[in-house]
Structure formats: C-alpha cells, structure tokens
Amino acid sequence: MDSNIRIIEKENGKRLGVAGGNYRIVISGEETDNTYAVIEMTVPPGGGPPPHSHPNTHETFYVLEGEVEFKTEKGKIIVSKGGFVEIPFGGAIHCFKNTSDSFAKLLCTVMPAGLEKIFEAVGQPVSEGEFLPVPEMTEERKSLLQHLDEIHGQKTFPPDYLG
Predict the structure, then answer these.
(1) What is the side-by-side order of every strand in the sheet holding 155-156?
(2) Looking at the predicted structure, is the pLDDT value of residue 3 above 80?
(3) Could you give the 3-state DSSP secondary structure of residue 154?
(4) How far is CA 99 from the centre of its chain?
(5) Preceding omega of 135 cis (within 30 degrees of 0)
(6) What DSSP character marks residue 85?
(7) Do the Cβ atoms of 161 and 51 come closer than 8 Å?
(8) pLDDT for 2
(9) How confident is the model at residue 163 (pLDDT cuts 50, 70, 90)?
(10) Domains of the chain as residue ranges with CATH
(11) Confidence band (pLDDT; 50, 70, 90) for 1?
C-alpha cells in the first residue's frame, strides 16, 4: 500500500479572496516538493486576471462549472464546462474573464509549483462562497505586484493588451 496517497476533502485547502474571486489552494508546492500546485478558482461575473505570461510554468485549466472567455495573442474563445486549456512552457500571453452572468469554476494546475505563492501574497483569507471586492490599485499594490512578478518569473500586461 502506498502511504504517499493524499485525499483532500472539499472543505480543506487554503481559501483566498483574489482579484474578486474565491481561490482554494487544493494542494501547494510545499506539499508536492514544488513539482505542481492545484488551485480551484471560483470566478464571479466580470472576474479574471489581466493578461500575463510565465515562460517557466506549464499551466492547465479545466472548466468545472460555467464558462470563461480565454484570450491569447491568437484570439479569444469561450471555454465552457468540460473544456480544457493548456498553456505550455514558453511564455504565451494569456488571460481569462468570466463574461457570463453566473459564476464559473476552474481547476488550475501549475507545474512546477510557485504561482500559488502570488495568490497567497495578494489574497485575503475567505470562507467558501465569500467574495471580497477587487482591491484598489494603489502605488503600493502596483509595487507589490511588480515585485511578485519578478520573483516568480511572471510578466503582467495592461488589461487591454490582448484587445
């Protein structure tokens, strides 16, 4: 019997209010020798990150509920429940936005782990179903986000970068 098997119940994991969404770090890099991390993202209507890239991270998204609009430099597409998006290593610029009028839920995996640290640094602890307002973009917050991008090998672009 393999004693390394983990079962993580739905009420476990760290829940954070991030950019208006409710993100649950299901399993962090600290628990996987930094090989990967899994984040469940509940995204309200209008929610989603700005365009960004991370050349040294392979990221996947599986849409569990609802739909989101994914944008890349090649265009945009609506990805609905059961849809899957893969962002391979290399730094492709991408973002998503919930353009519907209901909540969307995505399961995001990052390999290697590390990007969940950005969510931990900018997020506030929340309960399941709790959604905090998007924080004001003060000079201090801009500086924090730029610093986090630098240390985690990410680059963030203006919200209208992908049209």
Answers:
(1) 75-80, 67-72, 94-97, 52-53, 155-156
(2) no
(3) coil
(4) 16
(5) no
(6) E
(7) yes
(8) 64
(9) confident
(10) 14-156 (2.60.120.10)
(11) low
